[in-house]
Design goal:
- The protein is globular and about 60 Å long.
- It has strands at about 5, 10, 15, 20-25, 30, 35, 40, 45, 50-55, 60, 65, 70, 75, 80-85, 110, 115, 120-125, 125-130, 135, 140, 150, 155-160, 170, 175-180, 185-190, 190-195.
- A hairpin with a 4-residue loop joins strand 21 (about 150) and strand 22.
- It starts with a strand and ends with a strand.
- Strands 1-4-7-10-13-16-19-21-22 form a nine-stranded mixed beta sheet, with no helix packed on it. A seven-stranded parallel beta sheet has the order 2-5-8-11-14-17-20, with no helix packed on it.
- The mean pLDDT is about 95.
- The chain is mainly beta.
Length: about 200
């Protein structure tokens, strides 16, 4: 399947774009970025130098994904989300001279398979968003998010568990968590959720 890059997008020659991916109006993809197959980069979105994206990822309009972010397969990044990349951002050094790219250490955001980041959220690097986790819109993520966790707020805290469908799970009489949409079951141990092993 062909790659679609609209005329107003700015895609560096050194970027790698997988088959079936689409880069929309005014988006920028920097050199060394690697996008997998069937990715969508929305209007005005930014993908930094060397950012790694798996297959079937979606960056909605004006999402800012700064290097060295890593997105595994199936990650959703909502409109106007920001992934930071600096512990202590400053434009200048203490003596007032302009900082350069060599004057700081880049740190990244990692999104595991199937994770979703809601609109206008900010993920403060270094942080990892777990598999199939869901970050509610407007949240500020300052610490790692467990697999299947629904987090919300400033700073973001876990408020529920969600399954692969993104729907909040319900606990049955045996203590197992069940997805009301798919019927998939999950077990909780020490604040960690895992998929139940089929009998």
């Amino acid at each position: 399947m062909a790659v679609r890059i609209v005329d107003s997008a700015d895609v560096a020659d050194g970027a790698t774009i997988g088959d079936g991916s689409s880069i929309w109006h005014l988006a920028q993809v920097r050199e060394g970025a690697v996008l997998g197959e069937n990715c969508v980069v929305g209007r005005g979105a930014y993908v930094g130098t060397g950012v790694q994206m798996g297959d079937n990822c979606k960056l909605q309009n004006y999402a800012l994904v700064y290097e060295p972010a890593v997105l595994e397969d199936g990650v959703f990044v909502g409109p106007a989300v920001v992934f930071t990349n600096d512990h202590f951002p400053r434009a200048v050094s203490p003596d007032g001279t302009l900082k350069t790219g060599d004057d700081w250490e880049a740190v990244g955001v990692t999104c595991r398979t199937g994770a979703s980041i809601g609109a206008r959220s900010v993920c403060v690097a270094p942080v990892t968003i777990g598999r199939w986790a869901l970050v509610a819109a407007g949240s500020v993520v300052t610490k790692d998010v467990p697999d299947f966790a629904l987090v919300a707020g400033v700073p973001a805290r876990r408020i529920r568990w969600v399954g692969k469908a993104g729907v909040p799970l319900e606990q049955n009489d045996s203590g197992t968590w069940v997805c009301p949409q798919t019927g998939d079951q999950y077990t909780e141990h020490d604040n960690t959720l895992t998929e139940a092993v089929a009998p």
